[in-house]
Amino acid sequence: MAADRKVILVTGASSGFGRLTAHTLARAGHVVIAGMRATRERNAPAVEEIRRLATTESLLLSSVELDVQSQASADAAVAEIVECHSRLDVVVHNAGHMVLGPAEAFTPEQITAVHDINVVGTQRVNRAALPVLRGQGSGLLVWVGSSSSRGGHPPFLAPYFAAKAAMDALAESYAAELIRFGIGTTIIVPGAFTSGTNHFLHAGHPADEATAAAYDSLYGEIRATIDKRLPELVPPDADVQSVADEIARIIDLPDDRRPFRTHVDPSRDGSEVVSAVADRIRAEFYHRLGIEGLLPLNASL
Ligand SMILES: NC(=O)c1ccc[n+]([C@@H]2O[C@H](COP(=O)([O-])OP(=O)(O)OC[C@H]3O[C@@H](n4cnc5c(N)ncnc54)[C@H](OP(=O)(O)O)[C@@H]3O)[C@@H](O)[C@H]2O)c1
């Protein structure tokens, strides 16, 4: 059992990192609520898996309907958690969706939708959860970012990369604005895991197929090469469980020991170096502004 048992909400827990994180945290002894959309329809088997695991392993693990694209859904999910458990300690912002294709071939509505899931979704969950955390005077936000917003990243993933960069920027500002409420922040930065999650499998594609085809005539070969070489950069022993393990490790650290950012990047795209430099520049700038106290206590500086 965890020495300090926490009530933890994980968004997007029907598959991939979110599913493994929910299982891992529950096995570590925490009270875990796996947020999923379509719990009575498409994700009913994932809900059943949660129920089965909770029973067979005597875990404090349950699921809740949570579509991050609906404020009503986020509000209802948090209300249900507080009703059942009287508190909420940690939110893991994990729900996300990727798209692949030439930037120009995505309609503005598609770009908006990608941001709606990856960025605005976290805002909906925050607006539901933060009043509870602020009321408690304690809590932790764990944001599942992406090495794409810090390190080297290939073309033809622009809408997704832009959204993850926006989410990272939101997380940074939130960190400074929440620290005085006793609410901590850690951004988990996974590199590419091309198998073991639905990330690449369920990726969306441009609606404007004619424009995408125009790029294919000039870039088709490069795109095919990237599609082949990206998985080759991921070492064969890269294990998606390592992301879940890192999230669980971070949550179990004492409040004043958690890193502001932590990288799990088997393909080593350089994001760790960029993060170190960016965090130092930010610390110096905060110092010049006289607001260094608003930096997460434990920023890796
Ligand atoms: N795999 C990688 O290479 C990689 C690298 C860096 C960062 N990430 C990030 O890691 C996170 C998890 O991705 P993954 O690799 O584990 O892929 P995944 O298996 O596709 O998981 C994505 C999860 O997000 C959920 N989701 C999507 N839209 C949602 C919505 N509107 N409301 C609630 N849940 C929603 C999905 O639910 P449904 O089953 O209902 O669609 C799914 O459970 C994402 O934020 C992703 O950006 C992944």
UniProtKB/TrEMBL annotation:
InterPro entries referenced in this protein's UniProt entry, alphabetically: KR_dom, NAD(P)-bd_dom_sf, SDR_fam, SDR_oxidoreductase
Pfam families attached to this UniProt entry: adh_short (PF00106)
Domain Ketoreductase: from-to ranges: 6-196
PANTHER family on file: OXIDOREDUCTASE, SHORT CHAIN DEHYDROGENASE
Protein name: Short-chain dehydrogenase/reductase
